[in-house]
Amino acid sequence: MTLNLALVTIDSADPIRLGTFWAEVLGARLQESGTGAFVMLGEGQPGLAFQLVDEPTPGKNKLHLDFATNDLAAEESRLLELDAEKIGEFGDAGFRWITFADPDGNLFDVAIEN
After folding, report:
1. pLDDT per residue as tens digits for the range 68-106
2. Contact between 50 and 12 (Cβ < 8 Å)
3. If DSSP codes are grouped into helix, strand and coil, which group holds residue 16?
4. What are the beta bridge partners of residue 98?
5. SS3 50
6. How far is residue 8's CA from residue 5's CA, in Å, rounded to a whole number?
7. pTM of the shown model
8. Which residues make Cβ contacts (< 8 Å) with residue 21, sequence separation at least 6?
């Protein structure tokens, strides 16, 4: 028996707002549960989901998403227009990435593909 990753679920005080942000970032379709307490992006595996929680999990993110692009400057501009917050730029000539925070403060990285 093996396990297959089905969802990466992110806790949020406002799952629709956060799901909408990520739908725009990824060019995906937002699927709502009807109550707004749980939303998912698109179809396909693994999925990305957002669930309503009363209080955020304390402490630093225990998980973050990593993305790759062939145009880091264009993605930086696009993400900032979508209200991502730029945390910092890292790396060197061999490997560079930018760390961002989504509207709920969850960190994610975008690296340049070489």
Report:
1. 999 999 999 999 999 999 999 998 888 899 999 999 999
2. yes
3. helix
4. 89, 110
5. strand
6. 8
7. 0.81
8. 82, 83, 84, 102, 103
